Amino acid sequence: MLRTPSFQKLVVSIDNPHHILATETGVEEILHFNTDDLRRQTIGTFEGPRTDTSLFRAAIQKTGQCEPSKFQIVLYDRYGQDQNKMVTFSPYHDSSGMNCACMMTIEDSEAILLQDAVRSYRCAHALVSVEGPYHLQMINEEFSRIFGFTPQDIPGQSMNIIQSQKTDILRWCTMFQTACEGQLISGSLCLCTRWCIDIRAHLTFTPVVESPNGKVAYVLIQFDAPEELDGFAAGPGTIALPDSCESHPGSSFESSSEQGSQGVCSLGPFADYSPAAAASRGGARFAAAAGRRSDESPAA
What we know:
Residues 14-108, 138-181 form the PAS domain. Pfam families: PAS_9. This is PAS domain-containing protein. The radius of gyration is 22 Å and the shape is elongated. The protein has six helices and 14 strands. The longest helix is centred in the C-terminal third of the chain and has 18 residues, at 275-292. Helix content is 18%, strand content 30%. Strands 8, 9, 10, 11, 12, 13 and 14 form a seven-stranded mixed sheet that branches. The termini are far apart. It folds into two domains: 8-108, PAS domain (Beta-Lactamase, 2-Layer Sandwich), CATH 3.30.450.20; 113-292, PAS domain (Beta-Lactamase, 2-Layer Sandwich), CATH 3.30.450.20.
């Protein structure tokens, strides 16, 4: 196994008590444990009071049926300190191609708890489900002010409602998928308001879990410094944003592709995007808004 700076890998037996069979070549420590010592231990070495041992062990056993998975798991280091880790469980095949063990890939988790995601943020934000059809779960007042949609508008809606013909769908999908994998990432994108005004905003995608042990269930998307593309400020202070996506330290656009079966990039909330559909939805938004706001200039 090759050394990868962002990940630590080890091979464990599928059956209880899940002995550690091998560790990543060139890695001297995992959670501050010496890898030479780990090869004589079981995964119980990483477990503690806050570890969901049932979830942890079931994920390992399911790789015996070729079922990969990924969870945030609370693991304990050599000093007894608990750490939130994103762990990928994948089938491990021997030289003959037989599925004989479980490959665990451990990385730092940048996920936040749902209770923290719903607290008040100064910037616009939306909470999106990671399960198709990627429905919006929550928006705040600043989101409504910028995009024109209210909480009453969003039931059954996805982030398609703010897409435009100028939206870089691949960039969106890559960032969304990275967050689904447990890593925080940010970058700028062109979007569209309810009144068909194209804007550029700096977006931060943060993975959200419902409990310390579990799958990423939502992605919190924050919209900073929106700027209308026609030159009119969408909010206080027009800020020129970079064209390139900037990943948070420890994350990258390639992070999802490094994880085998976990790395298929879904089109996510913009899966049904097409310019024609965007134009159609945009026209409907404009028509609906025009009747209500004929005497007003478009709000951003």
